[in-house]
Amino acid sequence: MAMLNKIKPVMAATASTLAALALAGCGQSGPSESDVQAAMLRQLEAIVGKADAAKQKDQFAAVKVVKCEKAQLDAFLCEIDGPMGHAVGRFKKESDGWVFLGAGG
Q1: CA pseudo-torsion sign 32, 37, 40, 42
Q2: 37 close to 60: Cβ distance less than 8 angstroms
Q3: pTM of structure
Q4: What's the mean per-residue pLDDT of the chain?
Q5: What is the annotated signal peptide range for this record (predicted)?
Q6: What is the pLDDT of residues 71-93, one digit of tens each?
Q7: Domain-wise residue ranges, the chain
Q8: 79 or 20: which carries more pLDDT confidence?
Q9: Helix H or strand E segment including 17
Q10: Residues sharing a CB contact under 8 Å with residue 70, sequence separation 6 or more, in sequence order
């Protein structure tokens, strides 16, 4: 019973912290560099097919995320640098992973 009395405050503190983070909007972080690369490659595969998209795989692997910021509708605007220069893309987390919604802000 003494152990249960010690666990209750820890569980309450953990629940409070998680709730505060969720309410503050910190519960969802932006996509990682590999998330951005994979999302952009999947978008290209949907447009040109897997075989043609595979030819561009090295270019997507060279894409670097400069920064990502929370945007409207649970999306993130990410500044990226790659072989084709600097760009801004919109990304959103879906049930099957990150999705590239398009270029621009």
Answers
A1: negative
A2: yes
A3: 0.70
A4: 80
A5: 1-24
A6: 998 999 999 999 989 999 999 99
A7: 1-28, 31-103
A8: 79
A9: helix 2-23
A10: 25, 30, 76
